[in-house]
Amino acid sequence: MTRERAPIAVIGTGYVGLVTAAGFAELGSDVWCVDVDEDKVARLQRGEVPIYEPGLEQLLARNSARLRYSTQLGDALEHARLLFVAVGTPATYSGDADLSAVHAVLDAIPASHERALVMKSTVPSGTGAAVVRALAGQGKGELAYVSCPEFLKEGSAVADFMHPDRVVVGDSGDWAGDAVIELYEPLGAPLVRTDVASAEMVKLASNAFLATKISFINEIANVCEETGADVVEVARGMGLDVRIGPRFLQAGIGFGGSCFPKDVDALKQLAGNSGYHFQLLTAVIEVNELQKRRVIGKLHKHLGGLVGRRVALFGLAFKPNTDDMREASSLVLSARLSADGAEVVAYDPVAEEQARALVGSIGYASSPLEAARDADAVVLVTEWPELVESNWQQVARAMRGNVVIDGRNALDADAVRAAGLVYEGIGRGGEG
Ligand SMILES: NC(=O)c1ccc[n+]([C@@H]2O[C@H](COP(=O)([O-])OP(=O)(O)OC[C@H]3O[C@@H](n4cnc5c(N)ncnc54)[C@H](O)[C@@H]3O)[C@@H](O)[C@H]2O)c1
User: For helices 279-303 and 196-227, what crossing angle results, to 10°?
Assistant: First the structure.
């Protein structure tokens, strides 16, 4: 797949930046990676990978000769015309996106008619226009600007980079957009070339739609609990309709992660700031917050109170195959359980280090069985395969109680029950 290509720069070496850098290196580009986090850059220079993402370590190692890491933007500016920006854009207290890291990058880039900023970070629609105005105000109006939103999913980010459903490029039709399209061309993905504002909106609208699908099926699950229907069967029946599709119809304890919550908030705020009240997204967010707490009610029902009860959390990361704890449902769950007087012990195959930085008040186990020891209840929080495939006979022997709450509807209910345990999922007919 390799061929001679111009060097590029990637600014911000987090989940998106590092995967983007490794992916373009695999396609043959020399990539200059820049980050303000000195520790992260030092680790990368030593050949360490600071995040857990399947396949990334191998991809970085295989292309190490094409990848350089620095804290100095100047190193990248010397070599690259296209500067991919992949810094974080977290939510502020108001729900608006915090664009301070993006602005820090803009301020540091000197004027040049030969360079372009390529925005990979997720930013509200209208940001590109504001950036272009700001650059002109700083006397750097000749810098080109391209919106190229990223759709990769943590846990399968490398495969998503190599096999994207689509590549979206928003630009004003100049050399920079052409150059970005050429970079992606070997992947053979469908291309949507459009204006900057529309490209920005594609990203926010896509995440908001997926989040809406999740909150929708969660509400169906909650109704199923009242009516005796099984949401897993309902979702299967719905998902076979090609107009609906089966994905993102898994009821559970809500969505988390670094993207959905903040992007849904950002779109809602963007609408609000423009004078439009986005009612649907207001409900999507509220349903999700309530859904994270539904497990608490189920535990109360089975245990008759949580004071002094020991609850084992199977999984902490916001989804399997990542160590990312940002906005994970486990954060709300563990805090609520602790507040209600329960003793919480958690096991996660890779997210413990990240979790410890956020949740100090719970115990951490080094295996699922250790977490389950003397537990009154086990809650499946993250559907890691090793947790889904637990030996329930062994788990039952380790526990002192017998309650298993399947927060992701991922367990084999019959296997759990065959071990003498009480199984309850989300929206599965109100069974006990
Ligand atoms: N994580 C995802 O799954 C995902 C998917 C699609 C889009 N996005 C978007 O991509 C962007 C990055 O997300 P992420 O998860 O990779 O974030 P991240 O927090 O993992 O990484 C951001 C990196 O940027 C660095 N940084 C901050 N300010 C900088 C500066 N001025 N110069 C250089 N580096 C700087 C940070 O040190 C950090 O390493 C966000 O806008 C996010 O919404 C994320």
Answer: 40
